[in-house]
Amino acid sequence: MAQVVLEHLTKVFKGPAGERVRAVDNTCLSVEDKELLVLVGPSGCGKTTTLRLIAGLEEPTAGAISIGGQVVNRLPPKDRDVAMVFQNSALYPHMSVYDNMAFGLKLRRCPRAEIDQRVRDAAQTLNLTACLDRRPATLSGGQRQRVALGRALVRRPSLLLLDEPLSNLDAPTRLQMRAEITRLQRRLGATMLYVTHDQIEALTLGQRVAVMKDGVIQQVAAPLALYEQPANLFVAGFIGSPPMNFFDGTLREEGTAIMFQEAARGHAAAARPIALPLDTALAPRLREYLGKPIVLGIRPERIHCGSLPPNTPPERTCQAVVELVQPMGAETYLHLAGHTRPIVARVPPAHLAHPNETIRLVFDSRHVHLFDGTLRDGGSAIV
After folding, report:
1. What is the distance between the alpha carbons of residues 161 and 169, in angstroms, rounded to a whole number?
2. What pTM was computed for the model?
């Protein structure tokens, strides 16, 4: 296995009108030896292009790619010791599972006994032993994807690249395959770079997660750190389901307290801007931002509804109207109106609320996120 290092990697394509399109823009990223790192972002952000550059299927415009300490920019794909699993399993329909998994080893003229041992070991690891004589058409989606994974594993590459391999599967099979990939990576100690647009998949699979937007890496962190300490507005809004609630406004000082005052939007009589006193411990860090544009973010689970904590000061509460109730089993999502923008709160399943009901809210000021509001799409985190 090997460490992978991308240094200022850039890929520029020529668009239909001759314009320059930066699919990957000055990307710096390190995948440690025996690590499963997930690259996540919206469609078209450059994730697959990054994978193809590492595999040697695309030539970089600038920058360097190192695998195991060796710069591989000029190496052809076959010499990079990399295996790739695609979104489409791409199995040979006329071959058995055994032959599909063995095909790459046969091309490399491996001894027949070694091929047989590798294929059967991989089949046992992936629970495919009973399927070795079957053809792909007789397999389920999850089994076909395991065959594609096994075909890559039998090569014993230094790096395994996975390009949205679960996106074509149904939800229960995807959940099962996520667990299998995690167990497999830990058992084999494989270095894996996994690409997905599904942020839930990224958080559950990755030892670290890299968030990408418009070809640029926005943040690399452990899943929980990414969720609780987003580096900017894009990461905060992209990571989390339901997404973080955002409010535009400014900070003002009242005595020793710092208040967030939401900016009014439109002229709707029902719109009531939020005025929220912030945690006093944050005051020294926030004074330099007084009067400047600020975006306040708060996770849905940090909004308390209905039965409020005891001794809650009135100035920390506000009213909202329930528009939609979404029971999710272990939790319920409340979609609320009555303010300048919709609010989503995550509450326990036992919380009873009904559409058109007016309820009281408390924002947990200890867990708010504040972002620089001067750049709406990329404002960096203040706290």
Report:
1. 18
2. 0.89
